[in-house]
Amino acid sequence: MSEILLNYTRGGKVESLHRGDIAVVDVKGNLVDHVGNPDLLMFWRSAAKPFQVLPFVARGGINQFQIRSEELALMVSSHSGEQEHVDLVRKALEKVGLTEAALACGTAKPMNSKAAKAIMMQNQKYQAVHNACSGKHTGMLALAKMLGVPVEGYTDPDHPVQKLMHQAVAEAAGLKSEQVEIGIDGCGVPVFYLPLKNMAYAYSRLAKPEEGNWGERTKAVVTIRDAMLAHPSVVAGTGRIDTALMRLTKGRILAKIGAEAVYCLAAVNEGIGITFKIEDGSYRAINPTVIGILKRLDLITADEHEELLRMFPPILKNHRGDIIGTIETLL
């Protein structure tokens, strides 16, 4: 059963709370810590992206299309739609011989408010390249081109691209494809339903690929991990904790958000994977939960903890800027 992770207070009284579940797994597959139910079945959402791109990397797509490290980071990103991200999407599509017209992720408002405002001020419309998942879709299109299969219908569960990704995601989590059910994600492609502890196991293997029993795919997993850590601003964006955390820890911690408040972390030196799910899907609960977990597991220094609290303060303010409450982390 989910446990209370956060209390939101006003005037010293608890006004709201968030429940959640946490699984912490080492590279050998051992459950080393948990809160709530680590066996909770949940859709992995965008936190599965590092493993969805694995077939493309393992089959030689980087060399075939001359994909740069930051373009690979884009393919696993939930980017903020900033100009850097949009330019990378267009450049990567150009390399595989396509344009943004091939993207079937749907149009979306950029996650970054300044980027969204700039588009509005220019009397332009939001486009598919602004969608946080356009990088993932670029990777899917690139895989289709590499396989020599039609790009039309690449989002369908029965398309060769999606079948390969389904298999790769399941195997990364230590499961078989038939053990991982699918739904449809916000961007129109299959999304995967599996236990939190298996998601965490996949991230532990991403943290230390050399010890993760990847076999011939080890080099590809190292390449994906290192691209994410080298380009944190691509993986997420300005003001977001994924980017801030990877920068602050100088690559010791890898971080990746998923929709509906699913979140994954990888402690590179320790070979530990962490997954949590906020029960009500609230994004506001993510930052304090991330910080609380890292402190609980002693994966950040006192100075890093202090800096994270400065960047993402656990306080509530009213419209005048007065501090009127706190966020209490119960970890």
TrEMBL record:
* InterPro entries cross-referenced by the UniProt entry: Asparaginase_II
Pfam name, any one: Asparaginase_II
Q: What is this protein called?
A: Asparaginase
- Tell me what organism the protein belongs to: bioreactor metagenome
